[in-house]
Design a protein that fits this description.
The complex is a heterodimer of chains A (662) and B (232). Chain A is mainly α. Chain A has 27 helices and six strands. In chain A, the strands form three sheets. Chain A has a two-stranded antiparallel ribbon with strand order 1-2. A two-stranded antiparallel sheet of chain A has the order 3-4. In chain A, helix 7 runs antiparallel to helix 8. Chain B is mainly α and 232 residues long. Helices cover 75% and strands 0% of the residues of chain B. Chain B is built from 14 helices and no strands. Chain B is globular. The chains are: A mainly alpha (662), B mainly alpha (232). At the A-B interface, strand 2, helix 18 and helix 22 of A face helix 2 and helix 7 of B.
Chain lengths: 662, 232
């Protein structure tokens, strides 16, 4: 009963993550990568690729290392661990590939690498190996899954093929783990010198082998803690009796010593530490051979501290702790060592892929909530699949223990939240639907992208904003790239007083020439023009309404009473404002003035349309080109045309003015 | 005020509406689970025809309207007509359904919607008065029954005033916000209270439990009424 309660609580937490993750996956497909992630052109990959894919594949290496030790070398405690290791590999690679589906821009083309080969790409090789290795782990796992069926012949042939599958698995694994490391070799300018090593591919596969064993040890301990906590206690008691060595006979009776799960975990932790020691030696040699790296080690930068703590967590601490006999013989101690090794490996991959990588991006990458939700959701799905498989099939034990959900409510169950009596419902089912009921609405609020819009880039009004200045400096982004607009020259040329309306198509009520940036406030988004609250108050004041709530009487001035009140059924703006807003070429749609277009498109439409019309008349075919208005980038020298000499400071506007003889 | 209205129209609406939808779906799944998994053995022996007749008898309750507490049952029936039609087919709500589910429903004309709303409000007031005034009803009345009636009354009342600004005693925005919030309170309460009979009604005759009766209560009543071995 107690063990069921333990898994129940863990499963509940996993279900919470799964539901939030499912919603996040839906939003990622509907709204796309840009709206749901904090990735951009400078930071093209993030949590999904590095944590789920690179880290996930690294942590799942135990499938081939333990397969090699157990199935090929037949070393004693490891042969019992092959099945759990393969399950971990299956779930690890499965969740990596599943998470990748959300990371790639066009997910429905996930099969393209199979058909359209690009043999020059490391990622092509990685994708092939990872997907085939996933298949291999599936075949390796299938005898356990088929145990409950009657397909004995299929089971037999699968078992016969097992050693060959292990060999294929080892080949594929070592190929793609080294390739994942080699991937970073092509970007020496991005990866920090501490991690950028010519032998990074070797470091990748060796650290993955060590950390993978540690993770398997942790999972094994967790399994026994959840399902058979008695066995862990038996193991500890036997150890104590052996340490006391009062009676050597008593230690051997009862279960054989090899049955103790603690012994297997200990073997895993020791083997993992041996591999990690090799990794540590290689790492030190790498640092010594590259003087630029060893000098960066104690620079006190953010990267150097990260590197040192990574080495401490991933190698020094687990290796040091495993020498202690107390740690080796306690479940908690072993769990701590294994947890350190596994999380150190994950930290290493995050350092290489994100923390030590995006230094030159010029921005700090922090994953969005949707990225976290999908990352955690995918892992939670793998966790639930783990629970399902170990409960239904014999993975950790040789005989299947039917774990029946004995917490069936007897006769009937009372749903406390909804106060409804149900007939004999499974507690699990009730709880899962209840979790969905609570988690889905809340995660909708937290994750739905339109609720959390990015603040639109504001537009600053042009400098020199008055009619007396000759030239306006339009630098809407305030980023140093500007358009010099010869306002006075345009005004003069197009007919002084009457020319204003050729560009200024609408003003504020009562104004004569409203600056563009007054209505076109956002750089790329359209912005609302109509202020409902202001209008109700202004109309009520103007019409001198009386009564309890005079403002409520004003509705009928624009809306038809009794009909549905919305912008589409209200009066058009120009029905009242035709005189005082000086509209030029007003839109046919009465609601066309509800929103102002983005500053970007407003400027371009106004200028380019006119320039396009006038280029024939002016005899200047380049009038509607970008460079006619936009200043060249700093340091860029335009090509002199037809014998005309240009000094670097002169602008194209001046050039145009010169050409026209002004 | 504008921020509050935006909040109530955006995230709060989505959260409460989703809560209602998922909560009702959960009831539905649990009922189907009960029906087909747990009661599968009994399905063959169920008096389907009688059950269908009984259920339909409550949809077109001619029999129930002329006997017993006539005022109470009639106003309950009339209330249900308005309670189903106005929220779904009022012109202002049609735009909402179009935005949410991309379905366009035919709209009630303004006069019909107004009349139905007033009738519904009156029917609700009658129900409330009978629950508190009638001795028999008061004895079986729970405080939650009264509370549910008031929670249902609020959106109709505030909605009527929001649609008729000239009669509105409060500023229009305040009334509109109250309409939104009261509707959202209703959404949250639907799966948690006896209002869940929106879905559970259809399982009424099968699972005899949507009024929060204990399992088997119907059988026990039948046994008392018709002798041992009688099933509903």
């Amino acid at each position: 009963m107690e063990t069921l309660d333990r898994t129940r609580r863990v499963k509940d937490i996993l279900w919470v993550c799964v539901f939030a993750g499912l919603l996040a996956m839906l939003f990622r497909f509907i709204f796309g990568l840009g709206a749901t992630t904090n990735l951009d052109d400078h930071v093209p990959w993030g949590l999904w690729k590095i944590f789920n894919m690179v880290g996930g594949a690294a942590l799942a290496t135990s499938g081939f290392t333990i397969g090699f030790l157990g199935h090929v070398l037949h070393i004693k405690p490891f042969d019992r661990l092959v099945k759990p290791a393969i399950l971990v590999a299956f779930l690890g690679y499965g969740s990596s590939l599943f998470a990748l589906l959300f990371d790639i821009g066009l997910p429905w083309r996930f099969w393209h690498p199979f058909v359209f080969w690009n043999p020059h790409s490391f990622l092509f090789e990685v994708f092939w190996c990872v997907s085939f290795y996933f298949l291999v782990t599936f075949f390796e796992l299938s005898p356990s899954l088929l145990e409950r069926t009657r397909m004995t012949r299929l089971q037999h042939s699968l078992k016969k093929a097992a050693p060959w599958l292990v060999v294929i698995g080892i080949t594929l694994s070592s190929l793609h783990h080294t390739s994942l490391g080699s991937l970073f070799l092509v970007t020496p300018q991005r990866l920090h010198v501490l991690w950028y090593s010519p032998m990074i591919s070797l470091l990748f596969i060796i650290s993955a082998m060590g950390g993978g064993m540690m993770l398997l040890g942790l999972i094994k301990l967790l399994y026994h803690w959840w399902y058979t906590p008695g066995e862990l206690i038996v193991g500890i008691q036997r150890k104590q009796s052996m340490v006391c060595a009062t009676d050597p006979e008593s230690a051997t009776d009862g279960e054989p010593a090899s049955a103790s799960p603690l012994r297997e975990v200990r073997a895993l932790a020791i083997a993992g530490s041996v591999v990690l020691t090799l990794y540590l030696i290689l790492k030190l040699a790498d640092l010594l051979l590259r003087p630029e790296a060893s000098s960066a080690l104690f620079e006190g930068t953010w990267e150097s501290w990260l590197f040192l703590s990574e080495m401490l967590i991933a190698t020094v601490l687990p290796i040091g702790l495993i020498f202690s006999q107390r740690v080796r013989h306690s479940a908690n101690g072993l769990a701590f060592v294994c947890g350190l090794g596994a999380s150190g490996l994950a930290l290493n991959r995050m350092n290489v892929g994100i923390f030590g990588y995006f230094r030159d991006a010029g921005e700090v990458y922090f994953p969005s909530l949707i990225e976290w939700a999908i990352t955690v959701g995918v892992l939670a799905m793998a966790g639930l699949a783990f629970f399902f498989i170990v409960e239904q099939f014999s993975i950790f034990t040789n005989h299947r223990k039917p774990v029946s959900d004995t917490q069936l409510a007897l006769g009937s169950s009372f749903d406390r939240l909804t106060r409804v009596w149900n007939h004999r419902l499974l507690t699990g089912f009730e709880r899962v639907t209840l979790i969905a009921l609570i988690v889905l609405p809340i995660s909708w609020w937290l994750l739905y992208p339109p609720y959390w819009p990015e603040t639109p880039e504001p537009v600053s009004p042009p400098l020199a904003l008055d009619s007396e200045r000759d030239t306006l400096r339009i630098d809407a982004n305030r980023n140093g790239y500007e358009v010099l607009f010869a306002h006075a020259e345009h005004r003069q040329r197009l007919g002084t007083e009457t020319s204003c309306t050729s560009c200024h198509h609408l003003t504020l009520p009562g104004d004569q020439a409203t600056p563009c940036s007054h209505c076109h406030v956002a750089m790329e988004e359209r912005s609302p023009l109509f202020d409902h609250d202001h209008h109700t108050a202004a109309v009520a004041a103007a019409e001198q309404f009386h009564g309890l709530q005079p403002e409520n009487q004003s509705c009928a001035c624009c809306h038809t009473l009794g009909a549905y009140h919305a912008a589409s059924t209200a009066k058009g703006c120009l029905e009242c404002h035709r005189e005082d807003m000086h509209p030029v070429d007003p839109p046919d749609d009465p609601n066309g003035l509800m929103h102002a277009s983005s500053y970007h498109s407003a400027m371009h439409q106004t200028c380019i349309e006119c320039h396009r019309k006038e280029k024939e008349a002016a005899g200047r075919p380049d009038l509607d080109r970008c460079t006619t208005c936009h200043q060249p980038m700093p340091g860029f020298k335009p090509r002199p045309e037809e014998g005309e000499k240009l000094d670097a400071a002169s602008s194209l506007v001046e050039l145009a003015a010169k050409k026209r003889g002004l | 005020m504008r921020t509050w209205i935006d909040l109530a129209m955006g995230p709060l609406f989505a959260v409460t509406f989703l809560f209602m939808l998922i909560g009702l779906l959960r009831h539905l799944i649990q009922q189907l689970d009960t029906l087909f998994r747990r009661k599968a053995g009994r399905l063959r022996h169920m008096p389907w025809r009688k059950m269908a007749r009984d259920s339909l008898g409550w949809v077109v309750p001619i029999r129930h309207l002329t006997s017993g507490n006539v005022l109470f049952s009639n106003s309950s029936f009339i209330f249900h007509i308005g309670a189903i039609l106005v929220p779904l087919f009022y012109a202002g709500h049609i735009a909402l359904w179009e935005k949410l589910f991309a379905v366009s429903l035919p709209a009630l004309s303004a006069t019909v919607a107004d009349t139905l709303t007033i009738i519904t409000i009156l029917a609700l007031l009658v129900l409330l008065a009978s629950r508190l005034g009638n001795t028999k009803l008061r004895t079986i009345n729970r405080s939650s029954d009264t509370a549910v009636l008031i929670v249902v009354l609020l959106p109709f009342l505030t909605g009527f005033f929001a649609a008729h600004p000239t009669m509105n005693p409060l500023p229009w925005q305040a009334m509109f916000l109250m309409h939104l919030l009261s509707a959202e309170l209703l959404f949250v309460l639907v799966p948690l209270t006896k209002l869940s009979h929106i879905v559970l009604f259809f399982f009424d005759r099968i699972s005899e439990m949507h009024w929060q009766l204990k399992p088997g209560a119907g059988d026990r009543v039948a046994e008392t009424l018709f002798g041992k071995g009688a099933k509903i």
